[in-house]
Amino acid sequence: MPPFKTTYRISWVDTDAAQVVHFSNYFRVFERAEEEMYQQLGFTFNDIIRKYDFWFPRVEAFCKFKAPSKYGDVLEVSVVVAEIMDKAVKYGFEMVNKASGQLVAEGYVVVVIADKKLGKAVSLPKELIEKLSIYEES
After folding, report:
1. Among 56, 51, 53, 41, which residue's Cα sits nearest to residue 6?
2. Mean pLDDT value across residues 80-103
3. CB count, 10 Å around CB of 134?
């Protein structure tokens, strides 16, 4: 299956004194793309929280910066489900400048599914695995 794709326009608040995207903001864009992918699959963070009383702590994050992004740039963000584990999901991301076609960043996050009451990781529900597998990297 092809990756999930969305776009993100760089806002003034995303940039630093050099007028390029501050490195930490790439992780915000990753998370926004993840949220949009969930919506495309027919659920939201709140749906999962209400149904299962889960939360989604990030336990690992990585980003390799390839080229600067500036205010006003439009990025195409691709998301793949790189790995589905028993209690976690690894999402892979790529960001490409839509105007130039240049890869600006790539990375991943590992998200654990945790029970809010128990305060520990739990197995992913089959329903989530089935939905997420649509964007699983082959």
Report:
1. 41
2. 97
3. 12
